[in-house]
Amino acid sequence: xxFVWLLGIATIAGLALRPRVASRFPLLFRTQQLxxxxxxxxxxxxxxxxxxxxGATVAVVILAEWSVxxxxxxTGQGVLTGVAAHANAGxxxxxxxxxLVPAALPVAVANSTLGMLRGAPALAxxxxxxxxxQSARSGVLDFAPAxxxxxxxxxxxxxxxxxxxxxxxxxxARFIGVYGAFLVAAAMPSRWPDxxxxxxxxxxxxxxxxxxxxVILAVAALGVTLSPLVWVLCLAPIPLNTLLLARVYELDAExxxxxxxxxxxxALALLPVVALGVTA
Length: 280
Description:
Layout: H1 2-16, H2 18-21, H3 25-47, H4 52-74, H5 79-82, H6 93-100, H7 105-118, H8 120-129, H9 136-142, H10 144-158, H11 165-187, H12 195-199, H13 201-221, H14 229-234, H15 241-248, H16 253-279
Helix pairs in contact: 1-11, 3-10, 3-11, 4-7, 4-13, 6-7, 7-10, 13-16, 15-16
């Protein structure tokens, strides 16, 4: 309960301090990236374990997201529409999996961990779309979680993770959760998205829900046996980071906020259907 209170306090503080932190937002975001990359990502990669079944489920989710992301970029879609191919692998998928399919939680954890790496192509596209030139130093910070995950995974090939890794991961994840709540609130636009932003969310909804689902159905049609959990991981809203990245790279934060709200509403509406599918 104390953690929930901390999230609430961080959210209120972020909303209250929006005008003051606006000019420093890229620095605040990259501080988060550095903290994740230097500690959380390394330990997560070090502790990552994937057997064949877990690997297949996560691989199909990544295949769906990357193929839709590539198609969006090749067809000239806007960058925020294109990166909607990625699902929220943390704040949404982990609680949903814990509630609907508790036994499959390790799959969702692995999917969330690999999210630091699989989001790299979308991050590169966002950086390239910024009206401001992005330095190589900022690139190292922006990609720090993906780099840290890779370093940790390599370390795990030769050494067992330290016995304290689990407790440190849990504590650090809670800290990042509170800090992330502050950043999301601080990144929210000062006004409610207008009609143009809401109309522009329709392609994002197609990219987020319809196209990845078609990829998964196509894979299943080839005879690949997939866990029903794949739908929990796939039919999720966009990541919260989308709004943060729109702020950092000076893109359309109102559209990103509208996408976040719209995809969350659709994911909530689909949740009973997903629940029936995974428990049938």
